[in-house]
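Dear colleagues,

As part of the handover before I leave the project, I'm documenting each prediction I ran so the next person doesn't have to rerun anything. This entry is a single chain, and its sequence is reproduced below.
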Amino acid sequence: MEYDAVIVGGGPGGYATAIRLGQNGKKALMIEGNKVGGECLNYGCIPSKAIIEMADAIAYLKEMPGVSASVTIDMKKWQEWKWGMINKLTSGVEKLVTSYGGEVVMGKGFIENSRSVRVGNETFTGKNIVIATGSTPTRLGGIEDVFYNREILDADHIPESIVIIGGGYIGVELGTAFSKLGSRVTIVEMMPTILPGTDTDLGRFVERRMNSLGIKIMVGTKVEKVTKEEGYVVSLSDGSILTAEMVVVTVGRQPNTQGFGLENINPEMEGKFIKTDKRKMTSVDGVYAVGDVSGPPMLAHKAFYDAEIASDNISGKKSEVDYRAMPFVIYSDPEIVTTGTKTDSYVNIPLATNGRALGMNFSQGIFRVYVDDSFVIKGGAIVSPRGSELISEISFAVEAGLTSKDLGLTIHPHPTLSEGVKEAAEATYGRSLHFKSSR
């Protein structure tokens, strides 16, 4: 049987492509070598946010004025719950693929040519191939027997102390969560600041919060060596020594381009990534690539979007990517969220002016809407609890070409955090209700 598409990889990019193709009436075969749902559902996005949610809930209660709370954490029971929740998600995804007429084959896929993929002794052919192999954590040479995201998210207890190598968003998210859960956390970052690549005026809120939690942050410092004895010993470039029960490495991710026969079709590369055009097709006719393997940003929602574009083109619909409003979230405390593009025209609305935020015992953060000279919304930034749930309103405004007055005149419920978005829009034309700016 020849399929309309054979998909290599069952993570967000792969399963979304299979579902979208099925919705278009096409026959898809999805091949997954580990677990349906890929890194995101099983080892990344979902479990990391689950542990962050638990940590935030505990910290929220402990820090609320007038409340005295003591919490006991049974990580083994929590892990059982976590995997039960994940398995519901992954089995649901697999059922969705098959409900639209797709097929799922478990096993290591190996590309033989631009129309054939082998799994074990069986070869499957398709009019198209979609590469959705995702990414894996970057591993540091010479540093062995340490924890990466998979291992630390499967921990059966809360460690007394953790050294995190890498102060990017993953290190900050995990470090903050484990600090709230009771670990003594040190983050070592070789760049001059944590969250490199993030605007410093946004990141300062998070760094201030991390300091208040007692997290030790060492920037401009390189890890020279890690040895494991009874615990871990970490030797740093400044000559100092750190000891910890666990060492976690979070220094980025690498696209998966090895071990599945990519060399047999030899697509054009763009650095470490597979190069694609605006239709998500590679330089090899009929071969598409979506998600992390096809270039940054390495985000599950970008993979979902890529999958829709690729499936449309496979289905005969002309469709091209347009990343003009790609949200990026750091699940820190407070969350940092951005979308669209920056302009010089904006006003910062302090989180401290938002009644709902103050009622939640939060005051550090900002709301920001970027506009052009005609007040058309081009992007936004939010530093706030639940900022990830608020940013889509700005993304929609960017996609729809709305002006800040369109957003400012939209009635928002009170009291809500979402009012901060409304006020940031109002502030661009000098009409913010609860904050008087100099604009």
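Residues 149-251 form a domain with the FAD/NAD(P)-binding domain fold (CATH 3.50.50.60). The mean pLDDT is 96.

All the best with the project,
I.
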